[in-house]
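re: ur question from the group chat, yeah i did fold both. here u go
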Amino acid sequence: MFEADKLDLVYKAKKGNGKAFTKLIEENIKSIYRVAKGILSSEDDIEDAIQNTILKAYSNIKTLRKEELFKTWLIKILINECNKIYNFNKKCISLDKVIEEQYNDKYENLDLKIAVDSLPEELRLVIVLFYFEDLKISEVSEIIGIPEGTVKSRLSRAKTKISESINGKEIM
């Protein structure tokens, strides 16, 4: 597009012409994507930064002083949005990461996880509640609604079956 046409689009966009603004964004979308991709790694974050940039640019286009600097102005907004997202992500811990760490902490040994998963439901439940949820025998008894002695015997049977499974014997 010729420079005069670009300036005309910017002028029209500043006057509130939405189609002119859309055309300007379409012309610059590859550039803003490449800049965002250079700052952010997650596709979701890149999309958020671009979306926020477009919204801010549309809301504030009347503040643009020199029409010929539209692309520079747009990229400056984008960089600020990318930096906000980048800094926010540095301060936050991903829920997926927390869940993964919890899962890995509880099941570091894959053989143990497989052995526990293959237990019958009544044994698996007491193992999970007692060992993985750190509940007392009395609490497990109350939750399941069985006597404490039964909880103890199920824990004992479950530990034996887990030991047999890990040492190469099959769980019934």
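okk and heres the other one u asked abt
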Amino acid sequence: MSDPLSGFLTTLDLVDTGARTEEDIFTGPSQWMPNGRVFGGQVLAQALIAAVRTVDTERVVHSLHGYFLRPGDAGQPITFAVERIHDGRSFSTRRTQAYQNGVPILSVILSFQLPDEGIEHQVEMPSDLPEPEDLPSAVELLSAIDHPIARTWARERAFDMRHIPSPIYITVEGERVAHQAVWITSLGRLPDDPNLHRAALAYASDYTILEPVMRRHGIAWARPDLKMASLDHAMWWHRFARADEWLLYTQTSPSAGGGRGLALGSIYDRSGNLVASVAQEGMVRVSDPDA
């Protein structure tokens, strides 16, 4: 079995095709997934890296707004076309479209900014949660389960994720609440490139963001009739943080209805700094919602 972290880094090593029309064109590989569909976090991170390649190195990504348009095929590479929408005195805007078989699977607009000084405040990090070292890893929880999806969750992800109060891989334990927290970190040291850490955070942000919707209704990932798909994803980077150090990802769902659920997330470093905010709406369908 290949090293999951090496596979993750390989997906972000995009190839500049050298093509220049009205867009900059890059290509990147897809990671294998057990359901055959491209992981949303992967294509988000790749789209970010493609846009970064077209912006002055002093300008830093601060926001991303994207729509997942079609399921991606994990067996095929992806082409990324970056449109240089605007370069102002302080901000740059890019649109990245991800294509397979000539049709878009993701459309993202990203904004970059020159570093600047200004007013500051933030919502404080929760202070009464267990530390990651006191929580079980997915390997510890799932290694003994003889199921291909469980093996993927346990062994083939590039990130360690530790849930509070408990994961919802197989069952949903405890109260049916629309909130949770997850400690996340990469499984090894990452290169020092700050943009790679921002892309890694975008990648990991997609793993669990819809779980508060599922937890509220007692829906586990292993439920056979569950149909899930990310519809859109927004992310704001407030302060820099390394993705290879423990980060606390608090998540809540304010609403679900019409076969969709909305979830909001806040990501903190261990010093309590709010480093990013996330929002996603996804399709969440089960054949019997009351089961």
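fwiw on the second one: Helices lie at 4-11, 40-52, 138-142, 148-155, 194-208, 211-216. The first helix runs from residue 4 to 11. idk if thats what u expected
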